[in-house]
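Quick question: who can interpret this fold?

. . .
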Amino acid sequence: MSTADRPLKRSRSPRNDAIRNRAKLLEAAGEMLKSEPEKVTVPLVAERAGLSPATAYRYFSSREDLIRGYVHGTIVELRNFSHDCPKTGLALFEDVVTERIRLVRITGAATIQVRSRRGFLTRLRDQDEVMLTVRDIWERPLRAVMRHFRVDDAHFDHALFLYNLMFDPREILDLIDSGLAESDVAARLIPAYYGALRGWTGA
C-alpha cells in the first residue's frame, strides 16, 4: 500500500480538547468548593483535574475568574430549562422555580461559598456576566407573573431583586436540611414570592 493509499489518522480537535479541559477544571473547582472552599486555587484545581497549572491558566487567569466560571456554568443549565419550558403564565414560573430548587440541591453547597461584595442591583446595572444570565433565565417567567398580577413592567428589576432575595441557595438548602422536601420548599416559597411582589409594588 502506498503512502497515498494509507488512511489518515484523525487528530483530536484542539477545540474538543479545550472544551474537555475547561469542563475538567470546572468539575474539579465544584468539588473543591463543596469540600475545601478555602483551598481553591488555580494550581490545586488543575492538579485535581489532572492538568498542569500552565494549562489551567490558559482558561482561567485567577481564582476569582475560575470561581466565576463555575458559578456561571451552574446557572446555564437552568437558563436552558427556562428557555425550553413550554408552559406559560404562573405555571411557567412555578416550573422554573421547581427546577431551580432541584439544581440547588445538587450544586448549592458549592455556589454558596461564593459571595459578591457588591449588591444584586449594582451588579445587574454593571452588566455582570452572571447577573445577565440570571436575568435571561427569569425574563419570561417573571414577566408572566407580573402580567398575571398586573404589575407594571417598570418593576421588573425589583421583581428580579426579590427573586434573588427569596430563592437564595443558602436558604433553600437550609429549608431542605430542616426536613422539607423539595416540593414543600417550592410550595412555601412560591406563594410567599407572589405576596412579596404584590406588597412591594402595591399590586
Q: What stands out?
A: The chain has ten helices and no strands.
